[in-house]
């Protein structure tokens, strides 16, 4: 139900973003393929990036985290820890533990992107095979497509409020429902959908620039919001909730919260190489991650404590999200600015977490027909067509579908990491990742690595049991770590060891980062 002029804007942006031809004309991509690669495994967006000319600096990587860490979903999670009995210092401790693990895991994942220059679906060919790589890529992409739609819907609710504040005459449209969403909701959702598609249609460089601009805006907005709450509370904070935990129960909750904080990024640790393949150096990844993860997450935790503890002092209410604070801003101009900032934030988070992964996954599925831009449009259309507001309002879909797919993310990470770091010891023959030949090192058996499949099945099954079996509920907070550990262990036990591997870069078939 897109407005005609919006459809035209999207189509025009796609055509302008391409160089030399309209991607909507014809089915097969018209691009030159290097002579030594298989057409069914290669296009310019799946190709490795050249070492020279990479553009993702330490600041760009920091900006990713400046946006993603401060997402509304993360704030809701951290604020919810107050309701579970954790006070201010316990929340900061839990986030710090989680940040330490994430810094290590994301730096390891990021190094893989720097060395090989390939996106996650191609990276998965190392451990799963040239065809088996579709399994991790489509699981990661499927989760992202659903969340893209849901996050766009949540952002549209903010835009609804903003539009009514600016144009009160639109209020009646919020009462007229069509397919489970108000007419105003359809308008807001369509606007945000189009904006995100246009940005994505200009490729990863466009996303990098948007994230770089949005990061400071988000940080300043939340610091200002925390400052306003602290001022309104007279400089006082309530550090402990009414039902504060202590002793062993407190530490169990702290460790459980730290584990869940890592699990929230279970998708991102998989495909962080989608971004670091364009990083200028290892140092850029380390410094960007350092400032963006432990330091930025500490700032995030302090903002959580101020917003929650300050609001408890002001009126005794326990907020559930920063939007609860924004709605209480007495100044209409400030309310509009804050709402716009939340929209900028949600778009930034959606682009990096839920747009990039499915675009690469679909391009990997049909590389001769879908490049990044075409795949981005296809994934966005799917994210619209599933009517995500209905999914969001269905606990069964959220718990069983997304929870079921999510149970595979830990094992996938464990297998990919074990193969790269423990078995191959970072030795990768990059050009061979694009060769679909029975004699190729990543062809395995019919394009599938039996060891990876054998490791995935039992570890994912155990992860599903932990997620859904009431008797194992006590372990559910630690399910990602358990699943990732089992996936790595099973793969290490099954995979052949002591072999020698060719280590060759992909410069011969590489493309410029900003192609």
From TrEMBL:
GO terms for cellular component: plasma membrane. Keywords: Membrane, Transmembrane, Transmembrane helix. This is Allantoin permease. Coiled coil: none annotated. Belongs to the purine-cytosine permease (2.A.39) family. It is found in: Membrane. It comes from the Bacteria. Signal peptide: none annotated. Gene3D superfamilies: Hydantoin permease (1.10.4160.10). The chain crosses the membrane at residues 77-106, 144-171, 177-200, 212-231, 251-272, 293-314, 334-363, 375-392, 398-423, 451-472, 478-494. The keyword Membrane applies. It is a multi-pass membrane protein. GO terms for molecular function: nucleobase transmembrane transporter activity.
